[in-house]
Design a protein that fits this description.
single chain
Length: about 250
């Protein structure tokens, strides 16, 4: 199926009430082996229309889909923590596009949610385990321009590694898909060189400023994993958010 076709799936997925029902079902069944494939079908359709084949998606439909899923960013954050690697990867790709298209003045609220609900810690752990451009893009979106979120990172890493963020970014960011009027968006924010930081994190260093090797990397991952476990255990008082049909933590 090519993006932009008049299929019943395309019509359904671009209709906000239907999309909310679909995403709700995706969350419900994403971690269930029996329904993981169905969840992937919905997410793959969205990924195709908004990421990998976005250039073939009619502009009006593209932004209609963006508008539809904007209020569901909490759901996508939840899905990035799915035990299904495919569901987690697809959700992260969609979340990146959504945050890049978020008006710049609204991006801090999304970043604050990611930090307060534990998702920043999870993405930190993923990025520290595997230095990929996708992980660098996600950290950039979750942290750049947000002092409180950067503080979480800076407390975890040695200062010499943090200086890598100041290195010039040689390659243009992968996804600046299109412009909608002249409203500054997440893709327009000032970016740190997170790929350089992650690459340096995965190398050994033995200088007067820092000793960094497999032992210190292992200690870092264990510390972040312990923080995630402690954070999840602390989320004991919860309520159902009527706007998203999600369990939302009250810390």
């Amino acid at each position: 199926m090519t993006p932009g076709t008049n299929s019943s799936m395309t019509v359904c997925i671009s209709h906000q009430p239907s999309l909310k029902v679909l995403l709700g079902r995706v969350i419900q069944f994403a971690n269930t082996g029996q329904y993981a494939l169905s969840a992937c079908v919905v997410l793959t359709m969205l990924e195709c229309m908004l990421v990998s084949s976005a250039a073939n998606t009619e502009s009006g439909l593209f932004y209609k889909l963006i508008d539809c899923i904007t209020s569901f960013h909490q759901m996508l954050f939840t899905l990035t923590r799915s035990s299904s690697l495919a569901v987690s990867r697809l959700s992260a790709q969609l979340l990146c596009v959504l945050m890049e298209e978020t008006p710049l003045q609204k991006l801090p609220a999304v970043q604050d949610f990611a930090r307060s609900d534990g998702h920043l810690l999870c993405h930190m752990k993923n990025a520290f385990e595997s230095a990929t451009q996708a992980h660098a893009d996600m950290l950039s979106l979750l942290v750049d321009g947000n002092a409180a979120s950067f503080s979480v990172i800076s407390q975890a890493l040695p200062r010499p590694l943090l200086t890598e963020l100041k290195r010039p970014i040689l390659e243009q960011q992968r996804r600046i898909i299109r412009r909608k009027a002249d409203v500054p968006r997440g893709a327009d924010r000032q970016k740190g060189n997170w790929m350089s930081l992650l690459s340096a994190l995965h190398r050994d260093h033995d200088t007067c400023e820092m000793i960094w090797n497999s032992d210190t990397r292992s200690e870092l991952l264990q510390t972040v994993a312990a923080e995630i476990t402690a954070f999840d255990k602390a989320k004991v008082n919860t309520f159902v958010n009527p706007n998203t049909d999600m369990m939302t933590a009250t810390l």
